[in-house]
Amino acid sequence: MTDPFSGNVGDGGDRLVRTFLVVNVGATGRLRPRREDSGSSTEDATIARLPVGDGSVRDGTEHASSSGQVDFSWVADEPLEEESDFCDEAVIAYAMVETISREDPPNWYCCAPKEEDRICHHFPGKQFTMYEFAFREAGIRLPFNSFQMSVFKWLRLAPSQLHPNALAFMRAFELVCQFLGIGCTRALFFHVFHLQRSGSRGRHSWVSFKQPVRLFKTYEDSVRHFKNRWYVVMPITRAALHSLYYYQRTPNGEETLMSKIPLRWQRDHFDLSTAHYRVKYAMLGEEDRLAYKKLVDYVQSFSLGSGRIDRACPTWMRPGN
Questions:
Q1: Containing structural domain, residue 37
Q2: Are residues 264 and 134 in contact, defined by beta-carbon separation less than 8 angstroms?
Q3: Which of 55, 160, 294, 314 has the smallest number of CB atoms closer than 10 Å to its CB?
Q4: pLDDT (tens digit, 9 = 90+) per residue, 307-320?
């Protein structure tokens, strides 16, 4: 199996400092151009032989398209206009999409889109689009974990349909839950975060989150320049493939490979109001209610300090010092 990157692979990770997310620098390199076929590694015959639908994604599963044409009239102008920076082979990409050692072969392949490709386009086979921000700043790693999968499935959205700040909120929520020792559940997340949509006149772009009670701070450093920094990702091992797909038996006895979550941009999400995806306090179970109280108490325990700069080294002081 060939390493798809010419850059070096380094150690990556993340850490929590209060509610701020900090992600270390990892792998960088130049991406190879996208191929027109299914995107499977020809050196991995077991993956190349696996069947996959090539139609629209609905309710987390792929259905064959009879016409082969995809209607993007519901997509706002901006996603349809933004060409990826990585069409230029000289542009360096942050490509640490998984956590593996130097000796281990990769499970995922990243490639550069073509000039005519757009983030919302449907790519053949098992290819799907991701923003560089998701891996570099938000610290997400493939395969998606169960919490992330549950969010994408509940929203009926492909990962790249979420605004990168939404992905950062998801990752920060996971880290805070881990730090506090509380369950990281979809119900608790959608009680803390509500939806907001961008677009107008029946045309839609990215979906983001807002907070009725502000517990997490918005990630602002690099998110403003995310729209042109996206590439195409695909699984190239059986383990990676099965993290996204499952087999479903058809009425005639044949097995079809179906996606567990939406991997292509789809309109279904917008058929329901944002209130549909909200989880009210009365809908929370006992454990989630206790977890929410612990989360709120933790944030309210913060005390503001005053800062001073001494020879370019910040020193944080407690009030009264």
A1: 14-281
A2: no
A3: 314
A4: 554 544 444 344 44
Residue 315 domain-assigned (yes or no): no
Strand ranges, E, within the chain = 14-17, 20-23, 28-29, 32-33, 57-58, 61-62, 93-94, 108-112, 128-131, 194-200, 203-210, 230-235, 245-249, 255-259, 306-310, 313-317
Pick from 231, 33, 31, 244: nearest CA to 126? 244
Is residue 131 a contact partner of residue 164, using CB atoms and an 8 Å limit? yes
Is position 296 within any domain?
Answer: no
Q: What local confidence, expressed as pLDDT, does residue 308 receive?
A: 53
**pLDDT tens digits, 138-167:** 999 999 999 999 999 999 999 999 999 999
Domain assignment present for 148 = yes
Does residue 133 lie in a domain region? yes
- In the chain, the number of structural domains is 1
Contact 130, 97 (CB under 8 A): yes
Rounded to a whole number of angstroms, the distance between the first and last alpha carbons of the chain is 59
